[in-house]
Amino acid sequence: MTVPVLPLWIGGREVHSGSGRTGDVFDPSTGEVIRRAPFANAAEVGQAVAAARAALPGWRDAPPLRRARILARFRELLEANRDELARLISQEHGKTVPDAAGSLQRGIEVVEFATGAPHLLKGERAEDVARGVDSHSVLQPVGVCAGITPFNFPAMVPMWMFPVAIACGNTFVLKPSEKVPSTALRLARLLQEAGLPEGVLNVVPGDAEAVGAILTHPDVNAVSFVGSTPIARHVYETAARTGKRVQALGGAKNHAVVLPDAELEFTADALIGAGYGSAGERCMAISVVVAVGDVADPLVARLRDKAAALKVGPGSQAGVEMGPLVTAAHRERIRGMVAAGVAQGAKVVLDGRESRIPGAGGGFFLGPTLLDHVTPGMTVYREEIFGPVLVVVRVRTLEEAIELVNQNPYGNGTAIFTGSGKAAQQFEHEIQVGMVGVNVAIPVPMAFFSFGGWKQSLFGDLHVHGMEGVKFYTRTKTVTSRWPAIEEKSRITLAMPTSG
To answer: What number of other Cβ atoms are within 10 A of residue 28's Cβ?
Structure first.
């Protein structure tokens, strides 16, 4: 059977890559190659940037209300095609269809936020800042923007970026993960159907060559990235060196601190969802449970029983709670990390490394895995696993737990489970992490707040979506004006003007 090769999307039309290089796109539930992603070369990235640059003047000058109306129609098309998009996400990533639909919904909410562009782009005004002098500010687009997005959220993460960028009057070049390219291409077609002018959004699947071309292209003004910390640092340093505005979201090692007064059934259910949902392939997944005091033994027992009961299988199959990993190579990496943890002294409570799924022998499955008595020096604690592996670290006090989290180089998300308002308040105040949940395991903010971490989880100054996203995709211009009367006498002065 011939495996189809996907196109690029440049200037509002399909363009077949001439690079001659492609990457296999798998159905992770079967291990079969279902299509191939083109690897755009530097020249093709240049064509996409040129299309975006050509479209910029007309789109920049379009009234914000017109941009908002196109995004509103896009939102309606997303709703109408929700089931198709969820199945497409599931097919290439492996996550369950309900999980895919949930992530799509979070992306739709960013589109809803971006439809408020006429309000979001209002500047400030002050009369009589000095005698007869007024000042006002305006928010203007930065130009051609680019997004480089990961495999784990084929719709949500791109929609953290391009709806806000184009609502602000920018044009956009999207480089989706070559592992899951089809959703991004489908979104581009839906935006065209909604009325988006040609060239405002371009999609160029590819590998390191495409990324490098984006980071160094002189006509790209801003770059957004989500991925691992080493690549995020490279993206930030390379793009910033050429004068680009950059927001680069990196890796995570998210801790959930559980105090002895936590409601254990509720807590265990929340941790199972946060640790094993999407097979752990979430930047906001809980991967470390910090058990405080004598809560450890009963908590681990509940986690073991609940994880062992999870139904693992193809993401498209009804009733399945956890699907496969995205590739065989990723599965082998996680198996190796678990083995290293065991060799370093971690206690295996539940081992999913050799899980067998009936009827899915070729799929990239790894069952829920739970390790106890993990210490900060172990590989499974220090490195981001990005798979269905929960590790438990035991500490004596809340203060020890806070110190543990704060010493970790990542600062993406964290949570505390407790019945004590005082303990929660102390945790919120002292923790050095960008997103905090109190009895909420995955504290992903809604679209009208901003998403982003601290420390090595973010390179750059501004987070994605929310008002920080608007700030990232705009530049502020302040205008000071005076209209002197014709008969007003003037005189030359070299002193610094003041409001006196």
So the answer is: 29
